[in-house]
Specification:
single chain; alpha/beta; Aminopeptidase; seven-stranded mixed beta sheet
Length: 267
């Protein structure tokens, strides 16, 4: 197992805002491709086109860390011990063996062994989190506090995880454990002022990144936003953003992130 390209892209900003995009990567290493089914090769569960959607982050002087590899290599938003984030509910694991639609990702007898999973953690998972932790610490040293936004998207209908159609915008704060409740309310208020279906701490309460790094007592506040793809993409075509929908959505996203930045300074 060799590293064939950098694990992430990083743009350093000077504001309090750090944006993580752990599931936008599409790269499958050459050693992995021959072991995957057509479902695995399709990388269907990618968080598509978030860089394009969040094209205003430089204007906010945000720090942005963007994964390059597919979540099918390793899921950067799962804990390294693979403990379930939603006990009793269906989830995909640290090194997923099935897709969201439950199609197998690996050919027979090709799923990773426990030793291989540990290798993937060391090669792919740890460097991303070391970098993310370093950027949060850098921003906190500059400002006395840090604001983490974990950016995600998902198909609007995924029966495995939820019934019916997912709301457009799904805010997660680990039931207000990952950020100050007033901050969460200020961000959520920006959604409610606009014509989008939204929920806070519904099925998606925040993954490992939100729960692990969000430490309000240490002045690090984290929010996850899971966007239903119907909010900005063409139906049944993952290759294309719907420019009209995206243009409508961006002001809401920007207002939410600006509300985060406008929230009171720490102490």
């Amino acid at each position: 197992m060799q590293l064939e390209m950098p694990i992430f892209k990083l743009r350093q900003g000077k504001s309090r805002l750090v944006v993580s995009m752990p599931h936008v990567g599409t790269y499958l290493p050459s050693w992995l491709k021959p072991r995957l089914t057509d479902a695995g090769l399709s990388i269907a569960d990618t968080d598509w086109h978030l860089e394009q959607l969040y094209n205003f982050l430089d204007d906010l002087d945000a720090t942005v860390i963007i994964a390059t590899h597919s979540r099918y290599v390793i899921d950067l938003n799962r804990p390294s011990d693979d403990v379930s984030l939603y006990p009793g509910q269906s989830t995909t694991g640290l090194c997923p063996i099935d897709a969201f639609n439950e199609a197998p990702l690996y050919l027979p007898n090709q799923a990773p062994s426990a030793d291989e999973v540990q290798q993937r953690i060391a090669i792919y998972w740890q460097p991303y989190h070391q970098a993310l932790n370093a950027e949060i610490s850098r921003v906190k040293a500059l400002h006395g506090s840090a604001l983490l936004w974990d950016a995600h998207s998902i198909d609007s209908v995924v029966p495995r995880f939820f019934e019916g159609t997912l709301p457009h915008l799904n805010v997660g704060t680990a039931n207000h454990q990952s950020c100050d409740s007033d901050l969460a309310d200020a961000v959520y208020a920006m959604v409610k002022q606009r014509n989008y279906e939204a929920v806070m701490n519904g099925r998606f309460k925040g993954g490992f990144i939100t729960r692990h790094y969000g430490q309000p007592s240490a002045d690090v506040h984290a929010i996850q936003l899971e966007i239903a793809t119907r909010s900005y993409m063409q139906v049944n075509d993952v290759s294309k953003v719907d420019d009209g929908l995206a243009d409508q959505l961006r002001p809401t996203l920007r207002a939410m992130m600006q509300a985060m930045l406008d929230w009171k300074k720490a102490g």
